[in-house]
Amino acid sequence: MDRGIKKALQQYAQVFHDGRERNVNEADTVMYLVRFFTDVLGYDLFSEITKEFQVRERYCDIAVKVKGQVRFLIEAKAMPLALSDRHIEQAENYASRSGIEWVVLTNGTTWRLYHLTFESAGIEHDLAFDVELIPESDLEEVWEHLELLSRKRVVSGALEEFWAHKKTLSPVSLMKALFTEEVLARIRRELRRKSDVRLELTDIAASLRRLLNPEVLTEDIKIRKARKKRKRAAKPSGGEAEQTKKRNDTSSEPSEPHS
Description:
The chain is 44% helix and 17% strand. By secondary structure, it is of the alpha+beta class.
């Protein structure tokens, strides 16, 4: 991590900590956050940060724009206020009406990034990260997450890449990969190497379920069968192809009349 970034994080960690002790209100918290996004995350104060992003006659706390497009919204709460999931609902409402996929919920000390998914059944928000910026924090770990919100990383598409990686390694994704016929069959082969017990794939699946977190198992996961690959006819080698052609040519020639 760059020394300048580390120094700035240390400074703001103390600023937000002191503000919480002084019971700084929400309006002043927003002011501090705007400075954080310019000083630390590299956004232009005049063209890329706005408090005038309007959604149906209401304004969100802060909207961050890159190249004229709003990339994420910030729902700010007063520094002394502990964050809860209900605080995301208002920003979620703003974002959904504008098709914005990312929302930051923060009081300066706690930083939570949410990804929104818009479906016909409604809106789902998933927590992408949750970090604490306080004087005692591991600043390397904090920056690993907050850097994703920096202008440089947003322009490079790092947010989308980060989310794709996180979703791929999510418990549900891993469960779906684990409970496939191919994987279970491989596990069965490994178990058979050490035992002569005959096992059904369903038995192995049931045992695996007992090992896993019950919360993950609420997802309805079925054993997926492997797709059978069609066998392609082998192409004849060059010599075989030439012999076949000669046989065909010979068979097509008219036979000589018998004397």
